[in-house]
Write a structure and sequence with these properties.
The protein has a seven-stranded parallel β-sheet with strand order 3-2-4-1-5-6-7, with helices on both faces. 59% of the residues lie in helices and 11% in strands. Helix 2 packs across helix 3, helix 2 packs antiparallel against helix 8 and helix 15 packs antiparallel against helix 16. It has three domains: 46 residues, Single alpha-helices involved in coiled-coils or other helix-helix interfaces (Up-down Bundle); 214 residues, P-loop containing nucleotide triphosphate hydrolases (Rossmann fold, 3-Layer(aba) Sandwich), CATH 3.40.50.300; 49 residues, no CATH class. Helix 12 links the parallel strand 6 and strand 7. It is α/β, with parallel strands linked by helices. The chain is built from 16 helices and seven strands.
Length: 324
C-alpha cells in the first residue's frame, strides 16, 4: 500500500491500515522514519481528537480485566476505543500487555475496539515516542477514546501523564502498609483513583482502602486546573461491572470542565512543546551514534576525561560546540 493510500485508509478508519501505520512509526529504519514523519504530518491536518486516558495500576490489580470491562462498556455506547501500552520492561521480558491481548479476548474481537501491544525492542524514551505517535494515529482513525496503559514502573507513569488528558490509578483492596507503598508522585498526578475488586468478600476491604486513599488525597494540594472535588477515589468492580459507569461519568465531568475552562487545550499545547523538545534531544543523541565524526570525538573526549586530561564540564562543552 502506497503511503498516500495508507493515510486515506487510516482516515477511513481501516483497522488493518492503522496497524500498518503504527508498525511504520515503530520502525527504527531511517527511511521508514522519514515516511512516518510525513504520514503523521498529513494525518494531523484532520484535526481529529480523542479523549486520552492514562491508566496505571499495581501488580495483581486486574488491569486487563478492568480494561476489557471498561472498554466493552464504552463500545456498548457506540464509542470507538483504542488500547495502547507503554511498557519499558518489554525490552527485557516481552511485557505483560502481550499476554493481556489474549486475555482481553472479547474486547479484541469487538469491531469498535483496537488493541495494540507496545514495541518489544526499545528503551523507555523510544517506547514513549512510538506510543505517543500511535495515539495520534488512533485519533486520525476516528477513535473516540484512547486508553494508554503503563505496565512498567516509575518513570513510565510520568511519561503517560505527559501524553494524556486524564490519568487514572487502579488499585486493589489492601491494608495501610500498601497505602504507604504507593509513591506520592503517582498520587499527585492521578486525576482519579479507582479501587478495583469492590465485590464479594473483598468489598469491605475495598471500601476501607477507598476511605484511606480518599483521606490521602485530601492531604494533597488541590490543583488549580481542577474543580473542587478532584482528584477523587471511587470503588469499581471489573468482575461484575459495578462502578464503571460512575467512573466514566467522573472522567467525562473532569474532561468537560478542563475543556470549557481552557485547561485541556493548554495541557495539550504544553505536552506538544514537551515532546518537541524530547524529539530534539533524541535527535541530538542519535547523532552521537550515527555520525562517524561525532562518534570519534565522543570517544576521544571520553578518554580524555577518564585519564584526567580534561574535566567532564569542559569536555562536554567542546562536544556540544561540535554538535552545534
Amino acid at each position: 500500500m502506497h503511503r498516500p493510500d495508507l493515510a486515506d485508509a487510516v482516515l477511513a478508519g481501516d483497522r488493518r491500515a492503522l496497524a500498518r501505520a503504527i508498525t511504520l512509526v515503530e520502525s527504527g529504519r531511517a527511511d521508514h522514519r522519514a515516511e512516518a514523519v510525513k504520514l503523521l504530518e498529513r494525518l494531523a491536518k484532520s484535526g481529529r481528537q480523542a479523549l486520552r486516558i492514562g491508566l496505571s495500576g499495581t501488580p495483581g490489580v486486574g488491569k486487563s480485566t478492568f480494561i476489557e470491562a471498561f472498554g466493552l462498556m464504552l463500545t456498548g455506547q457506540g464509542l470507538r476505543v483504542a488500547v495502547l501500552a507503554v511498557d519499558p520492561s518489554s525490552a527485557r521480558s516481552g511485557g505483560s500487555i502481550l499476554g493481556d491481548k489474549t486475555r482481553m479476548e472479547r474486547l479484541s474481537r469487538d469491531p469498535l475496539a483496537f488493541i495494540r501491544p507496545s514495541p518489544s525492542q526499545a528503551q523507555l524514551g523510544g517506547v514513549a515516542r512510538r506510543t505517543r505517535e500511535a495515539v495520534a494515529l488512533c485519533e486520525a482513525a476516528g477513535f473516540d477514546v484512547v486508553l494508554i496503559e503503563t505496565v512498567g514502573v516509575g518513570q513510565s507513569e510520568t511519561l503517560v501523564a505527559e501524553m494524556t488528558d486524564l490519568f487514572v490509578l487502579l488499585l486493589a483492596p489492601a491494608g495501610g502498609d500498601e497505602l504507604q507503598g504507593v509513591k506520592r508522585g503517582i498520587m499527585e498526578i492521578a486525576d482519579l483513583i479507582l479501587v478495583n475488586k469492590a465485590d464479594g468478600d473483598l468489598k469491605p476491604a475495598a471500601l476501607r482502602t477507598l476511605s484511606d486513599y480518599a483521606g490521602a488525597l485530601r492531604l494533597l494540594r488541590r490543583r488549580a486546573q481542577d474543580p473542587e472535588s478532584f482528584p477523587k477515589a471511587l470503588p469499581v468492580s471489573a468482575q461484575d461491572g459495578t462502578g464503571l459507569a460512575a467512573a466514566w461519568a467522573e472522567m467525562q465531568t473532569l474532561a468537560r470542565w478542563r475543556r470549557e475552562n481552557g485547561h485541556l487545550a493548554a495541557r495539550r499545547a504544553e505536552q506538544a512543546r514537551h515532546w518537541f523538545e524530547a524529539e530534539v534531544r533524541t535527535g541530538l543523541l542519535a547523532r552521537l551514534t550515527t555520525d562517524p565524526e561525532a562518534r570519534e570525538a565522543l570517544a576521544r573526549l571520553g578518554d580524555a576525561v577518564a585519564e584526567g586530561r580534561a574535566t567532564p564540564a569542559a569536555a562536554a562543552a567542546e562536544m556540544l560546540a561540535r554538535l552545534g
